[in-house]
Amino acid sequence: MRRVGTWLGLTAAGFAGLAVTLWAAGLMVFQPVVVLPVLVAVSVVVYRMRGSRVKRAFGGWAAGVIMCVVCYLLMRAPSDDTEWQLPWRETPEFSLEQGDEVLRVSGVRDFSYPEAEYEQERYRKVDVMLPQYREECYPLRGLCGVDYADCFWDGHTAVCHTMLSFRFADGRRLVVSAETRLPQGVEQNALGGIYKKYRMLYVFGTEADIFGLRTDHRHEDLYLFPMRVSPEQAREMLLTLVRRQEQAQRDRAPYNTLTDNCSTGVIAALRSTGAVHPGPLAHMLNAGLAERLYCAGLLEHRPGESFAELRRRASCGYDVSPDNRAAYSRALRQRCGVAE
Length: 340
Known about the structure:
Blueprint: H1 2-30, H2 35-50, H3 53-75, E1 93-97, E2 102-109, E3 112-118, E4 124-130, E5 133-139, E6 143-152, E7 161-168, E8 173-181, E9 199-205, H4 207-217, E10 221-226, H5 231-251, H6 264-271, H7 289-295, H8 307-314, H9 328-336
Antiparallel strand pairs: 1-2, 2-5, 3-4, 6-7, 6-10, 7-8, 8-9
């Protein structure tokens, strides 16, 4: 029995050591600014162990101070003093007017993408963007529904990008997409997201921009699912995302691949309906989120239609409406067999 305990202890210590080693290697790549304090702290600890009582006391104090500096650097949000890449340059701002019945959104993104070159056989790289931001007023009493969307790229099946699209009675749609806010010259990397390299930004934009970028230009696999929610639930979902963007901007919140990613806000909005509790790890393996919504009765589907059949029908395909952005939302729903 003692041997088993020793073996288990050594195994646990080995995994812990491997985890620390991998984490430290990631620090050297994604946060090199903290590597020097770590090395100094380790050196001080070694010096302390070999010295006199005074040296040990001083070494302990110095190591504590240095580790506090390291923790501060690791917890520090990315700076605002930078030039953001074009798609994330503007920050949406909000105000509730007319007795909290109208939501005014400044910075609604409506980019167009006139050119795209094939980077691989299927996936495209967008090289030219025509930026456009608008200010819109959305009557919350006219909020009549929500569509859940997930998007897969590069053959991924376990993870995806999740979004919500809010439908208004006047025909407008407002998409909310939580994304990494990247500085100029920085490419997104899932591992980099663990080390607080990027900022979090909730993009509020049109379907022709947010969805069309993925279907018509990048040729990613987008799926659209109308939800069974009341207007009151839809309102609370939208306002939940507004509050999350305001808090992210106020706190300079970093994007974190493991704890605060593209699905965290979506799940918070879904939970606000009181009808679904996706689970603590749903934001990490988010490819199964749509099926959980189906099982909870929150996705519109035909009588007797299985989730696999719904998933096939929800596929948006590519080149939905590349030559007529104004008709994009209608064409998208015709593709999916969804009523306007």
